[in-house]
Amino acid sequence: MAPASPAGSAPGSPRLPPSRSPGAAARRPPATGRTLVDRAFPRTPRGALKISRTLVALAAFICFAVSGAHGAYTALAGMEMVITLLFLLLYLLRVDARMRFLLWPLADVFNSVIAALFLLVVALFAIIIKTNKGTLAGGVLGLILLVLCIVDAVLLCKKIRLDRGRGRSAPPK
Question: 3-class DSSP state for residue 101?
Fold first, then answer.
């Protein structure tokens, strides 16, 4: 009769040290003590604004796609939706706190300002040309998205200014 193998390992397989075994990580408490998702961010004004920007961009994308509008309209709305969703996930998963080599709020301001400029042009063209009601609705949603982008840029500029005003010796918020 063959000797019994340790629990959880197949006969003849190398035995892993306890720290490297698959179940060891699941039994250990998290190192930082924080959760992976920032559950408070969606309730902040910036979080609610990111969510509303994503939803309005999705609605504009659907309007442009269904109406058979020019591809540039659909592409801009789709790209705005994806980029805003990525920034939302960045802040929601606290990636900005882990990757401090880039000033994320400043990158977000650039995104908001550039998106606002593109949305101004595309939304006005869509409203002026209005080939059908879907294009008109997408243009109106594009103007709403333009306003949301400007508000987001203003809120982010205030955040950057307030964070910069805090000295190194001041306690974090």
Answer: coil
Q: What is the pLDDT of residues 84-126, one digit of tens each?
A: 999 999 888 888 778 888 778 888 899 999 999 999 999 999 8
Which of left, alpha, beta for 3 (phi over 0: left; psi -120 to 50: alpha)? beta
DSSP output for 15-77: PPPGGGSTTHHHHSPPSS---SS-TTGGGSHHHHHHHHHHHHHHHHHHHHHHHT--HHHHHHH
User: Rounded CA gap, 147 and 43, in Å?
Assistant: 20
Q: Are 60 and 84 in contact (CB under 8 A)?
A: no
Q: The whole model's pTM is what?
A: 0.70
